């Protein structure tokens, strides 16, 4: 998804600078609980199993990705990032259709 977002933003003329701020499990859990307690209508429930699953599958960006030197192609079977994004994110409107 990060590669898609970078590509789509740059295709529209935006300058992309990725900043990664690691967060430990306990801090993340505390922040999620605070958000749920103070703004439940602006978020969705995320239980411990969901949090662990997300953390286990998250791939930290490497230096090449952070610097913008790494450019990933869309997954196999996709003509480009716009097609992938339109399928992945139902609310996405392809720039050419806007």
From TrEMBL:
Keywords: ATP-binding, Nucleotide-binding
Entry superkingdom: Bacteria
Molecular function as annotated in GO: ATP binding
Bias kind Basic and acidic residues: ranges: 53-72
Annotated region described as Disordered, given as residue ranges: 53-98
InterPro entries: P-loop_NTPase
Name of this chain's protein: ATP-binding protein
Organism: Streptomyces sp. SID7499
Lineage, top ranks: Bacteria, Bacillati, Actinomycetota, Actinomycetes, Kitasatosporales
């Amino acid at each position: 998804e990060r590669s898609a977002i970078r590509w789509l933003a740059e295709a529209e003329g935006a300058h992309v600078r990725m900043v990664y701020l690691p967060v430990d499990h306990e801090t993340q859990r505390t922040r999620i609980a605070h958000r749920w307690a103070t703004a439940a209508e602006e978020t969705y429930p995320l239980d411990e199993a969901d949090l662990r699953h997300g953390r286990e599958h998250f791939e930290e960006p490497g230096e090449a990705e952070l610097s913008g030197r790494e450019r990933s192609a869309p997954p196999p079977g996709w003509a480009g990032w716009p097609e992938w994004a339109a399928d992945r994110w139902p609310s996405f409107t392809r720039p050419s259709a806007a």
